Amino acid sequence: MSKQTQPPEHDVLGLETGLEALQASPEFHGPVEPVAEHDSYDHLALLYETQGEQFATAIPYIEQGLERGERCLYIADENDTDAVLTALRDAGVDVDGALESGALTMHTAQDSYLRYGEFDPDDMIAFLADAIEEAEDEYEGLRITGEMTWVFGDDPPLEALIEYESKLNRVLPDANGIALCQYNRERFPAETIRDVIKTHPHLIYDRTVCQNFYYTPPEEFFGPDQPAREIDRMMGTLLDRTEARAELQHNQQHLERQNEITADPDCSFEEKLQDLFDLGCERFDLELGAMARIDVDDDWFELEYVSDDHEQFRPGVELPLSETYCAAATEIETAESVTDPQADGYGDVTVYNEFGLRAYLGTYVPVEGGADRTFFFVSPDRRDEAFTDDERTFLRLLGQWVKYQLEQEQRESHERTLYEIAADPDRSFEEKLQAMFELGCERFDLDLGGLARIDPATDSFEVEAVSNEHEYLVPGAQAPLSETYCRLTVDDESTAGVTDPVRAGFGDTLAYNEFGVETYLGSRIELENEPDRTFFFVSADAHDRAFTDAERTFHHLMSQWVQYELERKQRERALEDSNERLEQFAYAASHDLQEPLRMVTSYLQLLETRYGDAFDEDGEEFLEFAVDGAERMREMIDGLLEYSRVSTRGDPFEPVELEAVLEDVRADLQFHIEESNADIEIEQLPRVDGDASQLRQVFQNLLCNAITYSGEEPPQVRVSAKRRSREWVISVRDEGIGIDPDDHERVFTVFDRLHGREEYEGTGIGLALCQRVVERHGGDIWVDSEPGEGATFSFTLPVA
């Protein structure tokens, strides 16, 4: 039965279903439009010149029929059946299963067209009618295609072939079937091809689906008035072509204007949208252009943009979607129109009764990762004529641009949010992970995000974290990895998606049967020295489409961040363990060195006390060297002991006024400051969270160094602070001897001194201690300096 004679809800075979596979292929283009005054769109002719062109149409045609649950009947002649079956297998069709089940039947011309030894049009029509009736009992319908080169085998009259083709046009509108007749243009006479063209409503030629302007209905083709009617049709075709050319030029102007608007790099999205509204109002002769957010499931409509002022139809207006004309577009997900609201069933909706809108042309704009939209034009004036196919096509082009822009904006927004989450220094890993879960659920339209430990070797899966409550997917829950969708990230690609669990082979798994997961998108995260993870999102609702490349790429970005954070935590734990062992060693070593050093010092003191008078001048000098060396060793051991205790023996952090800390340091260094005639200028300093005693050590070391290395002139020291995002930068600047850039890193190394002790005293541990304290506070320390131009030591502390 033809698609045009069936109720709308009954999906039958016709032109639209027959060409879906071809229209979805990049090898074909259109558009495909119905032939005026003709009700049958179920009969197509393929004109080809090579086997490649032939199979490029015939194989997808059969493949789609099998996918739709139809029986497919192939009549081979020019190619043997094995060649056809091989081509189907190469296209990924389960040929053996289709043949065994009866979904695919292969015939030759001898057991179909010529089954009684010669061709009889009525006999062949009866053969196909019986095949369609038999197919309807078990399948969605019958899809037929036949290679027509058998005509030349037994030389049947070509008139009989044309009669058969014309009669097929009468059968198919009332039967649930569709037919594709294949004609090799290199083998058929031009006169026959001409008649074939006249007897098929639609043609496929040169990888293009064509509306056949030259189609002649059977009653005209074989009727007594054929010449006069053919002349009328030819003249009508010429007139149609002339009018179409004029309309094409008109359309071309609007397309060029659309391209100018959308390609303008200096206009914002809102400015381009307004220009497109103006263009559409001119093109469709309607008063207002608009765009609205919609949710079909929740019956929700919110007006987002309107091109001009209207008393009630303004941005922000919310209505049930069912109270608007946009419901028409969303039902079929394409361009739809209303020209007579009452006749079209909209006489009682709000936009008609309250807003006074009487004409509408709109298209549904599904937005990946965001709220869907409708893009439309309306007018308070009724429209006498129906909208043309050209107008609908132009509106769809506008809607496609809007879709692209909205999805690009949505992707950029999600990426910005992703980077903001990842870069936020105030959130813990667990807080960031929850924010990532929420972002992913919004981006992929799924219910729950999760992180799980996996081990393919032991077939183990253990949930580590989830975004929401779930009966089964809770932290600590375990299952065999092979019973989850996450096994795909191990067996196949690192990022995998499932939208049809049964078809993907998960119909008997725990994930599907017990956990109730219908949709899944996940990535594997491989780690060293600890179990791998899977980062995933799932939903109990089935998705009606596969995940796009953009969604997979975004998920991969998210999983890369999770991997980086897990590896960073792993490195931090390793570093903490290493530092703890180092501190233990430094403490033990410095503590154990104290006792023998005290013994050396004691005996040196005894030597000086008891035998000091017996030493000559050299002996006294040697003794002095020994005492001085022991004292310096004691200072170094004390410094090392203090260095090792920075992390383990520090006080808890609390609010600290740095100005008060610096005043205490100045008081401790008062004698040193007065003796050197130092001038210390202090700007306003902030309050931070920290260990006051350790921060005091930092300032004391930096001020002492600034005074000590001042050179010949009295020290000039300036202490300042400035805020940089979420941290304070504290700087201590002097006008002293400076430091060579090659030595900027060395000054923070334990016991590494740039000057001999005869020039400057010290143990060489002060700046290393400063670095240790600053790092404990979550900051960095560095120096900017050139020889002879002073030095600025800066360190950062988090804002309280």
Automatic annotation (TrEMBL):
Arranged from A to Z, the UniProt key words for this protein are: Kinase, Phosphoprotein, Transferase
Q: Which reaction does it catalyse?
A: ATP + protein L-histidine = ADP + protein N-phospho-L-histidine
Enzyme Commission (EC) number: 2.7.13.3
| Pfam families from the UniProt entry | HATPase_c (PF02518), HisKA (PF00512), MEDS (PF14417)
Which residues does the UniProt record annotate as the domain Histidine kinase?
588-800
A molecular-function term among this protein's GO annotations: phosphorelay sensor kinase activity
Q: What is this protein called?
A: histidine kinase
